[in-house]
Design brief:
By secondary structure, this protein is α/β, with parallel strands linked by helices. It is built from 17 helices and 15 strands. Strands 7, 8, 9, 10, 11, 12 and 13 form a 7-stranded mixed sheet that branches. The longest helix has about 35 residues, at about 365-400.
Length: about 600
Amino acid sequence: MTRLFNEPAAFADEMIEGFVASHGRWVKRVSGGVVRNTQSSPETVALVVGGGSGHYPAFAGLVGQGMAHGAAMGNLFASPSAQQVYNVAKAANNGAGVLLGYGNYAGDVLHFSQAQERLRKDGIDCRSIAVTDDVSSAPLAERAKRRGIAGDLTVFKVAAAAAEAGYSMDATVEIAERANDRTRSFGVAFSGCTLPGADHPLFSVPEGRMAVGMGIHGEPGINETDIPTADELAELLVAKLLTEVPEGLPSPRDTNKRARLVPILNGLGSIKYEELFVVYRRVAQLLAEAGLEAVDPQVGELVTSFDMAGTSLTLFWLDDELETLWNAPADAPAFRRGAVTAAPLAEASDGGGPSDVELPLPEATEESRAGAARVLAALGAAKDVVDANADELGRIDAIAGDGDHGIGMERGVRAAVDAAADAVARGAGAGTTLHLAADAWADKAGGTSGALWGMALRAVGDAVGDSSRPDAGAVAAGVAQAAAAIMDFGKAKPGDKTLVDVLVPFRDALIAGVDAGQSLTDAWGAAATVAQQSAEDTAQLLPLMGRARPHAEKSLGTPDAGAVSMALIVRAIHNTLVENTPAENNTVKENA
């Protein structure tokens, strides 16, 4: 378990501060992450990688000459926000565009995509590469749905070397996509990881058993087996990966052509190097027996998951160009190769973040300012109900996900309340208060829930505006716009076992009540009851989106954590509209 920390909520920020203090030769801090502390060649592509904290040396350890130009770093196991990615990319840009690299997780896709859109609006050529190397997370026919694990390293290294060599943006993207197409990974775990401040791991494996096909965020494996010997584990990993030789390459048994590949045996946190060497001994034998030539094997901790006891094997199938770029010199805190000519230190900057100057607020009517106070009260109620249920939300999430939903919701809603309180104190209208709360929620929470709640609050803010007191029609229209925005961007639909399974029936019930002439209080209350039942009904669904999808059967009988938190929040908001609401509606059912 993680033993050394101060305040758990401050762990990621304090970790980044310490990392920068100890690696100033390579990196400097900017708002949202780190960038190189050395000058890069002008008019070259910049590679910005990123993801949640808790995976060191990914992602900050891969920033340096010949490697990434910057890393956007989210909270523990939560994707960085769009604002964080945008800040780091702006600071890293060399004038020829930015390539964003990240693992294929819903939150990362949402936030990096939003940042990409903003960068393009600024006139910066921005592209993305989502790593999809984990063979256990989706079948070969659905490779685009696979998540990224230790294969991040091969894609990032090749793309970075191409950028360093002066490749155009098109050429850099092409070589990154080729590296991704030729990378396959498969992993196992013997125990789960424990986040700072938690008293139990995100998942557990029975004594004497091994989880097969686990992820790097605490997701449980797709099945279990007895713990094998080191040789048997090597045989399992190699056999699985050799069933997926990338298209166009010779078969491993083709004696006329000897394929070359980079094997990476990655430790996830608690497996010792000596153990990894014992396993790799047999991996090397098996690859040689299959007629494959191992090039520059990597054995060690490269993409971790705190203290998870586990390992993964990655095979990166080379061609001449990929091999040249893989072997190109690099000098980063956690990955060094050959000799680079030391670049001069970068000039001091403002940190790449937004200005600290407080921008003036849009004009608002007295009626809208009164509505802003009600918005603050609603967000305060949401904060109270999330705080009261954070542990239970995490427990629900851990059954088929990574267990961080409660933590992420706490970070987001607390930031939203702080932003709304400041806005109300400065005389903001309801729409502006919601906009500022939305941005704060998305920025501080990160992850999928942060992006979606940010969208929801912003949509309602757009609908109510700053010119009049928010009425039932405007609020209902805002909820409808929120549902449309979330489904359009996240691609989830009813039945996928997400918060959409609550949001859509809640929207429909709210609109029906308002259209029937009910007050906002009455219409919202009836819709909140529908939301609660809809959240409970998700227990009978199989997840079709996000990290829970590979573990669908494990979640049967348990409601979706995002659906439950949304139902709790809409009920809590209703409680701010009426007096003397029974307190029992504010607690997750014990056996939910």
